[in-house]
Amino acid sequence: MSIEPIELVDIGANLTHDSFAEDRDEVIKRASDAGVKRIILTGSSVESSRDAATLAESMPGKMYATAGVHPHHASEYSDSAHETLSDLTSRESVVAVGECGLDYFRNFSPQEDQRDALRRQLELAAETGLPLFLHQRDAHADFIEILGPAMGNITRAVAHCFTGGAEELKACLDLGLYIGITGWVCDERRGQDLRSIVGQIPLDRLMIETDAPYLLPRTLDPKPKTRRNEPMYLREVLRVVADAMGESADTVAQATTGNAERFFSI
What we know:
- This protein is α/β, with parallel strands linked by helices.
- The protein has helices spanning about 25-35, 45-55, 80-90, 110-130, 140-150, 165-175, 190-195, 235-245, 250-265; strands at about 10-15, 35-40, 65, 95-105, 130-135, 155-160, 180, 205-210.
- Helix content is about 40%, strand content about 15%.
């Protein structure tokens, strides 16, 4: 008798992205067939947060959404944007504030605007009691400096798409953050350092995600015909993470699914 694989939760997928416009239903079906039964849709701007909430509402119990403004869009953060995000957090489909944080790698918004937008979304998470879905790239010191004093008022927070080193990982864990691992860990060029420290993440703080359509796992065999990532490939992230941790895939699947259920209250 075959045993069904443990159902997975993809905690970060950008399914409102234009690249899914033509086949979104098929993408969701392929994910479900691969055992990825629940997906958290990432809101990264006011518009995409609204779209994510609406899409999630069309598939209750299967899709959920975050509501936030990514640092790339921080210069667009206004009182009106804050009010809209606040309204979105009252919707049943919205289970976290974010994606929010700092990104000094691109600096698509001025750094001061990024810091201001992050602080306001920390306030929103504190007011609503919702967990935080966080982004940080090349801004670790400022990120920890802003986040640290606020954590006493935050219920839970996850460092989404973590790609840092051992010191950054320790700082995040010391703050009580959960860690989200994507297909970055499958990249033989950029992901080797991350793969070497994944075992330092406690199983009760680990979650997995695709960040689709980005970060297609490079370990997939056979290689997909396009570079677009999608949630059905979450099992490849699971496989590589489990291997790096020296754990069975079932052990990591059970842990990450349970963590996601508790973290997002789904």
